[in-house]
Amino acid sequence: MTTTGPRRFLGYSFGNAGIAVLRQIVVFMPLYFYSPPPGQGREYLRATAVGLALFLARLVDVVSDPVVGYWSDRTRHRWGKRLPYIVFGTPLWILFTVLIFTPPAAGHGTTNLVYLAVVGSLFFLSMTVVQIPYMAVLPEIAWHEQDAVRVAARMGKFYILGVLLILVGGWFLAGPCGFLGSATIFALFAGVALALAAAELFGLEQRPVENYRHRFWSGALAIVRERPFWTYLVGHSLFVCGYYCILVACPFYATEIVRLPRAFTGLFFLIPMLSAIVLTPLVERLTLRAGKKPVMLAAMIAFSAFALLWFLPGKLPGIEGGATLAGALGLEAGWASSVNLGVAAEAMLLFVLIGAPVAVQMLVPPALVADLVVYDQRRNGQRRESLVYGLQGGIEKNAVMVATLVVSLALQGGKAAADPAGIYLVGPAAAGLTLLGCLVFLLYPLKKGWQDSTTGDS
Predict the structure, then answer these.
(1) Which of 231, 246, 247 is nearest to 296 (CA)?
(2) pTM for this entry
(3) What are the tens digits of pLDDT across the range 133-184?
(4) In terms of residue numbers, what domain contains 174?
(5) From the centroid of its chain, how far is CA 41?
(6) Residues forming a β-bridge with 324
(7) 3-state class of 334 per DSSP?
(8) Which residues contact 416 (CB under 8 A, 6 or more apart)?
(9) Which of 255-259, 261-265, 436-440 has the highest mean pLDDT?
């Protein structure tokens, strides 16, 4: 991509807030919407059925991500090889986001299961059409490794902003507006953010590389066989899976363990995200100084330790029977008398700690994939950014739905305040998945980032 000098690319980076909003709507809301705890709304499907439907829908990404990436790298259009996908795919992505929250049947049944699987598949397909070309722009606009880290850091900050908007504002608006109204409002915001990204990229897109030699399967297999790619892909995907297990279970944790009303669920999303925002400058400096691999490994280990503390709130001696929110603050609301201050404080502290690995998860991976793009280019003599992003996205994004499936299975052990055993199972599952990812990522060979990529060391 041709540029006239270093740029901040704020418009492009802000588009990541829109991507975050649309992704998080469908990661966090459908399980609670379709299968809420008793007394929290109409149940359209069993928890396991929701997890299965979304998992099946997400399997589309296994094929669509690398295929869309391959097409994008070979696209010849007057707008370039990325913008057409972003511009024409965004309206479809918004539409299918909203349709997920319009189940055709009023109760349990095959109709809702099939509907969620089909509309979910269309959602993930349209997401792929937008997100893969969007992410593939990063290595084209970054002049050097430090530029890639800085732009990736800005993207990460805007991604955290998008996550905050939907997890706090989205859950808050779900009360007065319903899940459908809340999803519609924030989906439209996402459309504006992606429009600003597209506007900045107009005139910057390069024409496709004319000597693109590889066919889809040969190119994909050549990338997947490389040790840097598969060690990053498997290791990071397991981290993603563990991380999202905690986040998907968070609404159940807030309403059934801490006993807060559903409108306050966003508080437990807000806490780690605010912690992550505060820590992003430190993460950026550590990444530039120590390298991406050590920072990612430290984040995985820390997250695993914190996930094991998922059991802690309410279990320490002296907590049971302690002061309630109603007694301490004089609140008259009925729910306040069921909120134990000690349990709430312990839970909040846990989520503050989780914010540290969240900051790394949001900021470092885009820069790592940029390394893989440069590595692939040096090894094969071609730029095929979207194919690289498509291959990693097809697996990593499915890790999110695997997390939903894991949580839905765990909740079969109990998802209510009177029987929370299934909710408590989520923490150890998340820790185990992340530790396994850490063991795989230890084998990742690009310790020096672009320097390794440039020399071809592996």
Answers:
(1) 231
(2) 0.68
(3) 888 777 677 666 677 677 777 887 888 788 878 877 877 787 788 889 999 9
(4) 10-455
(5) 26
(6) 340
(7) helix
(8) 37, 38, 256
(9) 436-440
Statement: residue 2 has pLDDT above 60: no
Residue at 2 is within a domain: no
DSSP, res 36: P
Q: Which of 137, 143, 119 is nearest to 26 (CA)?
A: 119
Q: Which residue, 410, 408, 407, 431, is CA-closest to 422? A: 410
The answer as to whether 3 is a domain residue is no
Write the CATH number for 363: 1.20.1250.20
Task: Please say whether the beta carbons of 438 and 234 come within 8 A.
Answer: no
Encoded amino acid at 147, one letter = D
* Residue 1 resides in a domain: no
Task: Identify the sign of the CA torsion 48, 49, 51, 56.
Answer: positive
> Given the structure tokens 């990693």, which residue do they identify?
392
Secondary structure class of 167 (helix, strand, coil)? helix
Structural contact between residues 69 and 391, judged by C-beta atoms closer than 8 angstroms = yes
309 pLDDT exceeds 50? yes
Residue 4 lies in a domain: no
Helix, strand counts (H, E) of the chain: 17, 0
Q: Are 231 and 432 in contact (CB under 8 A)?
A: no
CA atoms of 318 and 322, how far apart (whole Å) = 7
Domain count, the chain: 1
Residue 305: count of CB within 10 angstroms of its CB? 14
How many angstroms separate the CA atoms of 322 and 324, rounded? Answer: 6
In angstroms, rounded to a whole number, what is the distance separating the alpha carbons of residues 67 and 80? Answer: 18
